[in-house]
């Protein structure tokens, strides 16, 4: 990819040629390699070098249009600018998006966190070793049908015609292991684990193997669970899955579009148990995929969303902040319609941590480890969910795997039914979160 | 026929130049690609394939009475797949110049432990077949310009949204959306494959959110088509608005479904998602390779109720999953999957065919140049049966009518699930009240034997299928069917 200085110069030249006065560009370039293995042999290696940009152009009537392209040479950039200008004549006339007032503000930190990419042979060797370790862990584990070890370099940039120009780059490595068991007279069972880090050397491959192994084996002995209402413990991954699925609660653009469970007046209302606090924090020290600015060039920051059960903040773009008399929060995604999305949740216990409960001593609670099919089973505009899950019935610390069951409820009721936010948090790809205990959720089994 | 095989010296590699037509995939690409394929073979690769793609995509969104988004996207890219023994690698790039494609090939070769031949080696080109051009033979060249303009997209979506306003009550928000995906592809492979196609896929949809106090309902509906530049102009948005307004009105005050095990009647068209998730994915060779299907060694055996016959095919006129050739250059075909309960065929791409032994079916598909092709469904449906709709309902004492399905998924153990957006309680053969919040879960092996009745009213519906090679356009379909019993999750 050209440097941001080269892109800025090319954009200026093309805009001048086309008579375009006002524009901005957000783009990224990715260089990634991933490997999969099958029974000790590499199955597929993928390598990709790709870049893309999104261009916004404002015309003389101050309406705005967008175009995206993967062709970022001078010719491609010029075509994108002219296409965006054509689209601008169909742009919205009310609340037209504008440059972020913080597009040139100082960033909280600079991000140039590149690590050298490891050779493919090293990736294959590491993944073959992980597959073997899982296959050797238990005679019932017959395969690791889904596995991948990947490394990715990513560069992102934002520039505009008023001389904003920023860029950042980082490297990530990740591993995914999903093993499957087969035993005579029993149904096949499976489970997986995922790890991500900034470099391959520091990637917790052993931890991923250990977690995949333990989870898979723990599902070997399974039983049906009786349909009813249960005290449920949600794993950090499960709770963050639900929080993400219902993120319209905090999304200022969704609120303005009437596509949210909140309204502008919801700020300050109690939406959860006072035990719960939630922030979104792209700059959290545990966030591997840290990003320092959003699609509009606004610096990212920590934003309080729920403070001791009270809705305390929304996620904003420059446009939503202006309409709701707030500050941009660094959550915008550039487009014809600027959308807003969270970065990295930090869920933690408020001062009062709730009941003194433990999985070691609790009787007949259901521990939900992972939720499935969120794309299908969540009615985000109604607040309801009905989802299959992997988990265990836990009694005095003893875990028995649950065979095919669903969990259902209303997310707003769930938030208010929290009886414990455990003190110890775990790191997941979506955020940092402890286990969350909830009273009276519907489970359908047999 | 005389074939002339040129054999350039490898010394000349750095001096070679090609002048392909940059903005069109035609036979001018043949010298470049046959040379690159020859280099790859000479390097020791067992098989090489190039996939080139140009996309001109646009989406449009109307909210309330305004167009709030028009988003054009122009994409060009290529992928090269290199096979050596059982292993393969896939390298993608945005650079379609000679040197960009050569760099991608070299990277692929080096990943597989291969390198371009030494100086002075003779490198025979791979002889490609004469270009099989599905775009020219089917006059697809004008499809892009014949499709709706930005102006027309906006006007039609605003009219649709206005119609929604007149048909529904308790409206909180209303949206109409459209996208047009124009794609030109070129495939060249070291077995001589050389084929080009143009595809035009379009989709329109409406969504309605209604609210009355604490009661809420949201209903979406989408229609899709391929190969039809006039699709948007012919869209009957009044009919769609009436349907979703009626559904939203009924679901607004619906009770939550009581969880348990029920017989269900599943509506035609999008009800076909049950077969797609519960069986279709498990017949892909990708699943056989991973040993994640219970049907791995069941060809010729009974895997479903004797009343069930199912097809997967690429050629339905204008259906959403229709393609003339797959993304590996193979013409598509109509593939019989299950006949009267007996498993007849699997769905195979090239690599899947090599690795499992099942014949290719023109099913190698991918979302874009960034993915290697994999075995994927196209237009997949359960064939019409012998029963009337009245007979299906009459067979249910207490059950659930699943009129509109949401999405679903299937896991590595054959366990599937899907959501029901619009459901009704059936008592003594009659629909009695609306229900919401239902999720169906089950196991493929079990459910296929419980589809005991099919009516005669086959209907197809447009959908999106996400899997290993990305999100592709598919059709699901079926007549009304009865499932004797299934677990329904609810409250």
UniProtKB/TrEMBL annotation, chain A:
It comes from the Bacteria. GO terms for molecular function: metallopeptidase activity. Residues 23-87 form the Metalloprotease TldD/E N-terminal domain. Residues 227-445 form the Metalloprotease TldD/E C-terminal domain. Pfam families: PmbA_TldD_1st, PmbA_TldD_2nd, PmbA_TldD_3rd. Residues 116-220 form the Metalloprotease TldD/E central domain. GO terms for biological process: proteolysis. Belongs to the peptidase U62 family. This is Peptidase C69.
UniProtKB/TrEMBL annotation, chain B:
This is Peptidase C69. SUPFAM superfamilies: Putative modulator of DNA gyrase, PmbA/TldD (SSF111283). Residues 259-490 form the Metalloprotease TldD/E C-terminal domain. Belongs to the peptidase U62 family. InterPro entries: Metalloprtase-TldD/E_C, Metalloprtase-TldD/E_cen_dom, Metalloprtase-TldD/E_N, Peptidase_U62_metallo, TldD/PmbA_N, TldD/PmbA_sf. Residues 153-252 form the Metalloprotease TldD/E central domain. PANTHER family: METALLOPROTEASE TLDD, UNCHARACTERIZED PROTEIN TLDD AND PMBA. One of its GO terms (biological process) is proteolysis. One of its GO terms (cellular component) is cytosol. Pfam families: PmbA_TldD_1st, PmbA_TldD_2nd, PmbA_TldD_3rd. GO terms for molecular function: metallopeptidase activity. It comes from Desertifilum tharense IPPAS B-1220. Residues 49-109 form the Metalloprotease TldD/E N-terminal domain. It comes from the Bacteria. Keywords: Hydrolase, Metalloprotease, Protease.
